[in-house]
Amino acid sequence: MDTTSCSGRPQIVGPLVPEKPYPIFVQGDVVKGFGRGSKQLGIPTANLPSEAVERALTDIPIGVYYGWAQVKGGDVLPMVMSLGWNPFFKNEKRSGEVHIIHEFKDDFYGQNLKIAILAYIRPERDYASLEALVDDINMDISVAKNSLGRPAYTQIKNAAFFD
Length: 163
Prior knowledge:
It is a single chain. This protein is an alpha+beta fold. The chain is built from 4 helices and 6 strands. It has helices at 36-41, 50-56, 130-148, 151-154; strands at 24-29, 46-47, 63-71, 76-84, 95-100, 112-122. 31% of the residues are buried.
């Protein structure tokens, strides 16, 4: 079976079963970010508080990850997360921005967000255009969906960590 996309990136990443240090469980109340996810990119993100990023995510490389997310005891949903500096936007502070692969009717600032990070997708990159950035994020979303469909990844939705 060919698991490579027309972009040359694999459609599934990560081993058949999550390997150490994964899963990594993190939670915190959603904070306001730069407002770019929905407005500029059309890809809304939930921003983890800086304390959660510094406390739980200092031992993994900067880059893009996939896993599961839950907002305030709701459904456990697929997610992709950017951990890093977002060089396209020239951030001066490292951030953890979670895109939950679901359409929400309302914002959920201040709500508790729980995530299970299961695998690394790719390193952080700079882009020549906003369009190239959005294309890569959409590819990350596709990779996350495909990768999370494997049984060992799907079962983590039922972890005791989630409500």
